[in-house]
Amino acid sequence: MDTPDPFDAECQFLGSVLWSDLPGARALMAGMRAADFARPMAAHVAHLAMQVMADGQAPGPALLFDQAVRTGQASGEHRATWLSRELADLYGNAAGAAFGPRFKAAVLAHAYRRAAARYARRLLQAADHADPAAVAARLDERGELDALAARYRAAAGPDALDPPDIVRPAGNQPGPARREAA
Questions:
Q1: Is the pTM of this model over 0.85?
Q2: How far is residue 2's CA from residue 48's CA, in Å, rounded to a whole number?
Q3: What phi and psi, each to the nearest 5 degrees, are found at residue 98?
Q4: What is the mean pLDDT of the chain?
Q5: Which residues neighbour 68 within 8 Å (Cβ) at sequence distance 6 or greater?
Q6: What is the pLDDT of residues 66-75, one digit of tens each?
Q7: At CB < 8 A and 24+ separation, what contacts does 11-14 make?
Q8: How many CB atoms are located within 10 Å of the residue 113 CB?
Q9: How buried is 12 (Cβ within 10 angstroms: 0-12 exposed, 13-18 middle, 19+ buried)?
Q10: How far lies 31's CA from each of 36, 74, 110, in Å?
Q11: Are the C-beta atoms of 166 and 120 separated by less than 8 Å?
Q12: Could you tell me which residue, 20 or 169, shows the higher pLDDT?
């Protein structure tokens, strides 16, 4: 499966959520976090959708906008205009709710890549400046990465490949295939 670029995946996923009824939107947003989105506005829209769904309503564009205004998350004319345009674009350009699961997996794959890059940067900083015990401790700080990998696998389904093998502990590397003697 080709993975769409992060911007398109986020837009299409959120558009799918906006096109969904409440049960469908809940299924799409299950396991998602606002932090999974690279673009701040996408994270903001995801957060609004979660708030509206928590109130038992389907996350349509008008309800998300109302939620933002009512809670002060779209204060000021500029921010309200920006949000209304974003919601209109997401809703108007979405491929539809049926494609949501595919884009959810893509959003999580990109989130995994960003988390792996953060993990690698922390390791590199520790390797450059810390003692060996501190480097070893950094190796064990995989909680965010492992959680994203699990959420990606759940979203991508049983036929999904593992997330990109950017970071995999040496003990979890698959061994070479053994050939049986003929």
A1: no
A2: 29
A3: -65, -25
A4: 85
A5: 48, 74, 80, 83
A6: 999 999 999 8
A7: 11/42, 11/89, 11/90, 11/93, 11/94, 12/93, 12/94, 12/95, 12/99, 12/103, 13/100, 13/103, 13/104, 13/106, 13/107, 14/42, 14/45, 14/46, 14/49, 14/90, 14/94
A8: 17
A9: buried
A10: 10, 26, 15
A11: yes
A12: 20
Indicate the length of the chain as a whole number.
182
Rounded-to-integer distance, Cα 26 and Cα 95, Å: 18
Which structure tokens are listed for 162? Answer: 């593992």
Backbone angles phi, psi at 170, to 5 degrees: -55, -35
* 114 HSE (CA, 13 A, CB side): 12
